[in-house]
Hints:
Largest sheet of chain A: 5 strands, parallel
Cofactor (chain A): thiamine diphosphate
Keywords (chain A): Oxidoreductase, Thiamine pyrophosphate
Domain Dehydrogenase E1 component (chain A): 12-294
Low-confidence stretches of chain A: none
Low-confidence stretches of chain B: none
Pfam families (chain A): E1_dh (PF00676)
Largest interface: A-B, 47 and 43 residues
Number of strands of chain A: 7
CATH class of the largest domain in chain B: Alpha Beta
Strand order of the largest sheet of chain A: 1-2-3-7-6
CATH architecture of the largest domain in chain B: 3-Layer(aba) Sandwich
Structural class of chain A: alpha/beta
Strand content of chain B: 15-25%
CATH topology of the largest domain in chain B: Rossmann fold
Number of strands of chain B: 14
Order of helices and strands of chain A: HHEHHHEHEEEHEHEHHH
Shape of chain B: globular
Oligomer: heterodimer
GO molecular function, one term (chain A): magnesium ion binding
Amino acid sequence: MTDPEEVRLYRTVRLIRRFEERAIGLVRSGHIVGGIHPYLGQEGIAAGVCAALRADDVVAGTHRGHGHVLAKGADPARMLAELCGRENGLNRGRGGSMHAADFGVGVLGANAIVGASGAIMTGAVWAARRRGGDVVGVSFFGDGAVNEGMLLEAFNLAALWRVPVLFVCENNGYATTMPVDGAVAGTITGRAEAFGMPASVVDGQDPEAVRAVTAAAVARMRAGGGPELIEARTYRFDAHHTFEHAVRLDYRPPDEVARGRSRDPVEIAGARLSDADRAAVDAEVETTLDAAVEFALAGPEPDPADALAYLYASGLTARGGG
Amino acid sequence: MPRLSYRRALTRALADEMTRDPDVFLLGEDIRVAASNVTAGLLKRFGPDRVLDTPLSEQAFTSFATGAALLGTRPVIEFQIPSLLFLVFEQIVNHAHKFPLMTGGQCAVPVTYLVPGSGSRTGWAGQHSDHPYSLFAHVGVTTVVPATPADAYGLLVSAVRCDDPVVVFAPAGAMEVRADVDLAALVPVPLGRGRVHRAGDDVTVVAVGHLVHDALAVAEDIADQVSVEVFDPRTLYPFDWDGLWESVSRTGRLVVVDDSNRACGIGAEVIAGVVERVRLVAPPRRVTRPDGAVLPFAPALDRAVQPGREQLRAAIQNVMKDG
Lengths: 322, 323
């Protein structure tokens, strides 16, 4: 009998993996325009972090954000419809891959500006806490973001005001094509420690290890602790962006890629399940995604007459351009 | 009737909104001691949880406000220096402004950005004297530039209540204006509605912010020669086109006086928005800062690049001569 928590973690990494593979197929078939930043290889981080959160906790992600949105509980069908730019998508086709959001499950949005979510999340959690309760927030970002001044300002603000935000750095070794060694002076955890924040390093390929370290941090934050940082070491299995499928960029040595891919979060989590349990999850995920693809491709295209709908929450309408 | 200063009108608007709505809070640099003298008394009245002094981290606290607004509060940020808006332009435009559309209407970002002392403060030189309201109109963020104490009160109240981000420029040239005001009659001023300060028949002068007072002085000065209507848009975006078209349709002539740099300044937009719609009897004129202006330090140089009364008078006389 497999531990239900292990089944849940495996299901999430498997769902993200297969979602991304299907999304890449839809990029190739032209149903998703603009491409995506695949989360392949990093699934264990979103799965492990979100497994340690409550439904009312909030997260904000990155341009490589599908995993965060799915792991927090968004409907894969509406997520896929969003990537396809359909009216039945999470954002009604107005956001796409890099801006997918689902406020109903606490996803305050993927954010395509590197390092931007830290300060936004700090304000969001501060506002939520003002009303009482013990909500925590998670800001996901990559290793490239640790050189963004705005994120370091957010570290300071969160630490200064003891806002319980978990800063999760997904260190996949590259900011697009720039290796960490070429970009990061000092260390990632050292940046957090400089602001008096507890910081730890975890194996991002192991969702259970990520869940455990997150759960400990979240427990401290719920008990009144301030922000913390987790550096999850990971490896991006695929391209920075799907445009690399057409334009091969030479920046990762093949032996490094092979080594990186050898530690696969899907296999690591899957090995903890019985064969029967694993097969059952795999089948259920495929059924879910079959339905998601069908839902997405059957979704209505938004009406161009409504191109600027939702621009203003106040109801203001913009002058047309013609 | 009591005399109300423009600055105290801002203070009063903040206090009234904080009293009315517990979700309104203030943040900014040195606001607890009220370095700009706008937030005076508010710490004592509302406490440190609603008057937050921030570290000098403009980008972070601007996006902090965005996040706080996403979860139901109404932050008001005070910026001591107008050029700080250049530093946080990304946070306002790329995040606060874009979130409602990008999320398909899942959220609102009701943040007010208050800039007391925008434009030249005389002697504050290149990096403290900008007046970047046209930039916000260009990107479509609601932008107000009140000229009078009553409008400063009413527009700031409306900004705080608006469900979208609003930038409120309080020009340095208007901050010391005082007016006899019936305090009980202070009311919210709707965003996007202009005001005719002085009726006239020959030419419509559109004046922005503190320049309304210059326009009124010039109009009075030449009243025996020209009948000048002074139109104060109050909100630059959304602009009160109906109000301005009505005025210009009567006068047939248009002069804009605007403390923006000339290229792509709001003066250019006002002229374009009028001539697309109304047939004028003379080519319109604008009085602005020069292209690419950086305000030099020496007082005579500082004044030389700001729109002045002499230039406005000349522009009015020229449109009268031209048709």
